[in-house]
Amino acid sequence: MRKIFFLFLLVSALPLYTSGQGNYDHKIIAILPFRAMFAEYRNLTDSSREAFSLLEIKYGMQLQEELYKTITRDTNRLLVEVQPWQMTDSLLKSRGVDFLKVPYLDLSAISKLLKVDACVVTTMTRTLPVGRSRSSGIGGSPIAAAVSAIAMASASEAGANLLTKNNKIFFFQLVDGKSGDAVWSLTDEVTPNQLLLSKGKLVISPDLFKRFRKRFLYCD
Asked: Binning pLDDT at 50, 70 and 90, where does residue 162 land?
């Protein structure tokens, strides 16, 4: 009886992506531009916000390219085809898609536009110390709400250490193109050593997406 109960616990503890992989027929996926949020935005004047938004788009595309390179480095271990990030961005631009709003759009429609079976959508935010207020997400989006909750949970765990750290959180989701459901997700906290904004340039460590590659359901 104990063995049966233990087996039941193991089965019920299987991660989300195991069931997701079995229920969805994904042959080609796209990696969307990141929604990259930097704390420096709050300190800018109104006249400089447009310029900073352009920088956020630029950094979001740079992170998108880096993630694409990371997971396609060994195609023999990939279980799906990944659309080249340049093609993804070209198709999005051809329809006038605002890259800053990508995580909050209808990702079923985005998948149809890109002619892919699923999309990897990523939001980056900064971890916050306990007690510090933060602005709400765009339009009350479920993804924005999730990012907010993750940020506060991370802050609670790290406590006072975050007062002197400038860590950031990546919130990854694999969204099915037909249903629009998130079939896999991963939250990853990164340190300034892995991702640094220095003198207007984004400095990326080679191991930034190492954990993503290990956890992603379509990387064998």
From this structure: very low
Quote the crossing angle between the two packed helices 85-94 and 107-114, to the nearest 10°.
Answer: 110
Q: Please report, for residues 15, 44, 158, 169, the alpha-carbon distance to residue 128 in angstroms, rounded to integers and kept in the order given.
A: 27, 19, 10, 10
Query: Do the bridges between strand 118-126 and strand 168-176 make them parallel or antiparallel, or are there none, so unpaired?
Result: antiparallel
pLDDT (0 to 100) of residue 18: 38
Contacts of 92 (CB under 8 A, 6+ apart): 32, 33, 99, 102, 110, 113, 114
Backbone angles phi, psi at 197, to 5 degrees: -100, 105
Q: Greatest CA separation found in the chain?
A: 69
Angle at 172 between CA 108 and CA 36, to 5 degrees: 95
> For residue 184, what are its two tokens?
């896999």
pLDDT at 127: 60
SS3 (DSSP) at 103: helix
Beta bridge pairs of residue 176? 118
pTM of the entire structure? 0.72
Residue whose entry in the numeric block shows the structure tokens 């049966």:
4
Angstrom distance (rounded) from CA 85 to CA 33: 8
Give domain 16-215's CATH superfamily. ABC-type transport auxiliary lipoprotein component (3.40.50.10610)
